[in-house]
Amino acid sequence: MKSQSGKVMVVGGGIAGLTAAWELARQNVSVELVEKSCFLGGYSIGYTCKATDTCQQCGACSVEKMLKNVVGEPLINVHLRTEIGSLDRSDGFKISLKKNCEDMAEALVLKGFSRHNAPLYVRGKGVTEAAPEGAVDIEKMGSEGDINVDAVIVATGFTPFDAEIKGTYGYGKWENVITGLEFENIVRENAGIVRPSDGKRPEKVAFIQCVGSRDERLGNLWCSEVCCPYAMRMAGTIKHDNPDAEVSIFYIDVQNTGKEFPVFYEKIRENVRFVRTIPVDIYPTENDGLKLRHMAEDEGSPSFEEFDMVVLSVGLMPGADSKIVSETFDIPLTVDGFLDDSVDSGVFVAGTAAGPGTIAGSMAGAGKIAFDAVKYLGGAK
Amino acid sequence: MAETTDMIEVTINKDVLVIGCGAQGLESAEAVAAKGYKVVLVDDGDVPAPASADIEVMANTTVESLAGMTGDFRTCLANGSGRSDRTFGAIVVAPKYGLAPLNEAYGLALDDKVVSMTQMEALLGDAAFKKTLGQGEGKTIAFVSGFGQEGDPAATSRVLEAALTVQKLGNARAYIYANNVKVGARGLERLFTLGRNEGVVCFKPLEKPAIEQGDTLKIVINDPVVREDVALEPDYIVVEEEVVVGRANLDLAETLRIDTDLDGFIPSNNVHRFPANSNREGIFVASTLEDAPNVALRVADLLASGVKSVAANAAVVDETKCTICLTCYRCCPHGAIFWENGIAAISPVACQGCGICASECPMDAIQIGDFTDDALKADIEGAVASVSGTPSIVAFCCQNSALEAGEAAKAFDTELPQGFRMIQVPCAGKVDVEFIMKAFVEGADGVMVAACHEGNCKAERGSTFAKWRVEEIRKRLETIGLSKDRLIFTTIASNMAEEFSMKVRMFAEKL
Q1: Are residues A152 and A178 in the same domain?
Q2: β-strands B201-203, B173-178: how paired?
Q3: Domain check: are A327 and A362 in the same one?
């Protein structure tokens, strides 16, 4: 209850980084929030609401709320399009920041997913579209220079599994094979699910679970925890918007959504078909359809089934920057390649950088890390 | 809306009551104490000595009653040596749930060969027993799980750990009969794989296994992989356990007036509550170890240095109008209303400003902060007057959801009808019948009440109240000769700008 001082750098502006930053500010700690992309919120700010008539507790709206909190908080200083250059630990943490030089020219006009993402629009090189009011020149974004802080929270997040690795599913080749992440964005932008090939509402949809997760051959010996929940919730929204739609979920083991799961699961099973097998491959058919081959559970031979659209429930892989972050901040990697969150030398790890987790889980975990960081500041001073 | 808000300083008690001394209760008590607050830790059973000297411990103690408000909770703590009245600024609930074996779901009776998961864990802690499992030909142990209930990663983790322990004992063999293997937690898939590599056999039959319990035990399943019946005669069967809420937790929730979820677990299943909030300000819930530091942050946020600055006009009761009908007390989702000097009083610390009470009050005796009846009526007049073009649509938008979506829709230049106007309300539960009718009287062609989805309302039941009112008015519109379709109720999340536009466009087309 004594007034807390000190400054913490939070690396990564996804839901874990936002939550950690906000919790620190609530404890009167000032925060330098560093985000390499042009907007805050990470992957989760692009997620869609998955409510039917009732809320399905996916937490997507919580990200919106947390983003609003953070951008309105004077103790949090946000650096967009900025990365960590080097780290000097001789006296606290002296961190050099550099502009993210990733070429964003192709982006032309980037539109943030949330109006709380300031600036809303970012102009890239060679913009042909008229720049909207409030647009910022991308070349002017980003921070350079050294910043001294007392502790660091690393919340660099995950990378979605690259579905092209599972070549037999034809992702990248067949337009109507999409990932769960793309499903999120399509619904968000179109106020409902539509097929990429023709913009029409699909009548028959399949979800394939564990794409990239629980895969011994790939060496990915983890459950991504979020894919069963999102697939089931998405299946529920498809049926809610279009009761005539047929939705199938191909799975290994159904994982829980959280509280009240038995009630949720019983209800979803009334509307959605669950097939315990992981399909082998996908071929295109006429009218942009897809033929899916699987070993149906009650037959001994392969079955073929046609769908309008197939959603690959891609898992959560270690963040693309894990290795470099591990080296810069001297954080060991886990056997799975995530950042080891048991470090306690003034560097902390929050969110999916340390392993798969839900929005709710990332928020709770980030709160815990913020608590630990404040405790560390108290002891260090 | 009002220009300025007068703030008042309220003194807050800085002591914290922690109820329940399970791992997360102890951890919460320590975390709150580490923030510099005095903690009283009570439990209806024994309490182990906490590490911190700042924690006062009361064993075999229950919370008999709760009065007062956030920052000034007056409790009566009862134990064998009598009752004591204690005041706290905040309360932390760390519920301890029980476990019950689900042997009946499998048609089994517990005996020395058919045991619960807890019993097996105890047996595996006994070196002599472990030795008997691995000796000679070795014993066979079958774990059945996921058929009596869906199960969860915590239960799966226990099965996987125990099976691996068994499998590693000499010639002992472990079999798992599972429905969905709940590996959705850190490290479990690896543990599952490790077990199978060690020789643990896992069957995943589509139906509950048929089990005979006679002189010998026999489990028969139809294996979906080899597509034939597989029988096993194990020496032991270990049955799964379900988590039970128990009477004590339900009573506690009732005493504290906090909501539970459909299964009776505390708190309600609402995204606005996680990770550690309940529906009542100042009462926090630690369901897991990770919740403990979050609880401490929320406590520190609330109690700070013992003085809280709050809006003086958060919710004001007109004493000349209040008839003590109890309506507001009953409908307040945040337990923020009490009685003082013969009228209803609303705690400015506990009040969340949703305004459900103001709308439900039959005497119109309550006014909410910046959203007084006069201010909202002025907003309605202004909104309709500013419209040029038809149709004119007035949308009452909850500031937690629809308003955000609507503002984003405008910011992102999505297509909205020209005559569309939004009116900010603190919660759809604040939208009175009177306001809706006022909008029609002022000349609106259509009125929309845009709320949070059921189960997502920050005030738990605000959107439900709004829905009821809209249904009621739609009936009345018919009787006065207006089309009922000029009024709609809709739900929308804060992040759904395009969906918001689409809903407004569809409504405009219909009009």
Answers
A1: no
A2: parallel
A3: yes
DSSP lists the bridge partners of residue B40 as B17, B56
Facing residue for A256 by CB, picked from B184, B269, B305: B184
Residue A22 shares a structural domain with residue A132: yes
Q: How does pLDDT run across B113-127, given as a tens digit for each residue?
A: 999 999 999 999 999
Look at domain B373-510 and name its CATH class.
alpha beta
The C-alpha of A120 sits at a distance from chain B's nearest C-alpha, in angstroms, of 9
Look up the domain containing A238 and give its range.
Answer: 161-316
Integer Cα distance of A80 and A32 in angstroms? 11
- Which pLDDT score is estimated for A251? 97
**Six-digit token string for B272:** 């606005």
User: Regarding the domain delimited by B314-368, which CATH topology (the fold level of the hierarchy) does it fall under?
Assistant: Alpha-Beta Plaits (3.30.70)
Which of B150, B189, B240, B260 to probe by mutation at the A interface, max A CB count within 10 Å?
A: B189
Chain A residue at shortest CA distance from B193: A221
How confident is residue A198, by pLDDT bands cut at 50, 70 and 90? very high
Nearest to A25 by CA among A381, A373, A342: A373
Predicted pLDDT at B2: 43
In this structure, of B157-166, B168-177, B382-391, B434-443, the range with the lowest mean pLDDT score is: B382-391
SS3 at position B171: coil
Architecture label for domain B7-97+246-307: 3-Layer(bba) Sandwich (3.50)
Select from A316, A341, A362 the last residue of a domain: A316
ipTM score for this prediction: 0.95
Q: What pLDDT, on a 0 to 100 scale, did the predictor assign at position B306?
A: 92
pLDDT tens digits for range B250-277 = 999 999 999 999 999 999 999 999 899 9
Residue of B nearest to A191 (CA): B499
d(CA A251, CA B176): 19
Mutate which of B186, B221, B298, B503 to disrupt the A interface (most A C-beta within 10 Å)? B186
Q: Is the pLDDT of residue A106 over 60?
A: no
Mean pLDDT over A281-310 rounds to 88
Instruction: CATH number of the domain at A105, please.
Output: 3.50.50.60
Ramachandran bin of A337, using left for φ above 0, alpha for ψ from -120 to 50, beta for the remaining angles: left
The yes-or-no verdict on residue A102 having pLDDT over 80 is: no
In a domain, A1, yes or no: no
**B185, closest residue in chain A (CA to CA):** A225
Is residue A292 over pLDDT 80? Answer: yes
User: With an 8 Å Cβ cutoff, are B495 and A360 in contact?
Assistant: no
Report the CATH superfamily, name and number, of domain B99-243.
Answer: FAD/NAD(P)-binding domain (3.50.50.60)
What gap in Å lies between CA B168 and CA B163, rounded to an integer? Answer: 9
Residues A49 and A148 occupy one common structural domain: yes
Q: Which strand (E) or helix (H) includes residue B114? A: strand B114-116
Residues A152 and A179 in one domain: no
Give the mutation candidate from A45, A65, A113, A223 for the B interface (greatest B CB count, under 10 A). A223
